[in-house]
Specification:
The chain has helices spanning 17-30, 35-56, 114-122; strands at residues 2-11, 63-72, 80-87, 125-131, 134-142. The chain is an alpha+beta fold and 143 residues long. It has a five-stranded antiparallel β-sheet, with helices on one face.
Length: 143
Amino acid sequence: MKQLSKQLKLPAELDKLDSVISFLETTLWQCDCPMKIMTQICVSVEEIFVNIANYAYPDNTGECHLDLSVDYEAEAGCNQMTLCIHDAGKAFNPLEKEDPDITLCAEDRQIGGLGIWMVKQSMDQVKYRYEDEKNILTLTKTW
């Protein structure tokens, strides 16, 4: 089993989203991650990063840290990505948000919650903790 670990630290600003996606794609390609899985991971992280950039630091600009670890080998089902996303913005547990009622048409649904619901559907595991005045969201995906 091989392991690859990389970190990225950057301002939590919308114009840094391309850097986040490039970081993920470059690392996941090195680990032979299938395109479908890579897309699920990138869409999930885009949702989270955009929310951090828009809401975590209402009075100023802060940073976002990504700690990516991938355990992989050629055999399918043995590969796992773990990504911890840290920010020092205001405490917010996105997992406490009630899942949207997707049986309703878009006009009848409450605003918000669809993005984190999509993240929970795409990832195998999503965990949140608030530690040392930091939001830490951990995503895990196996393929």
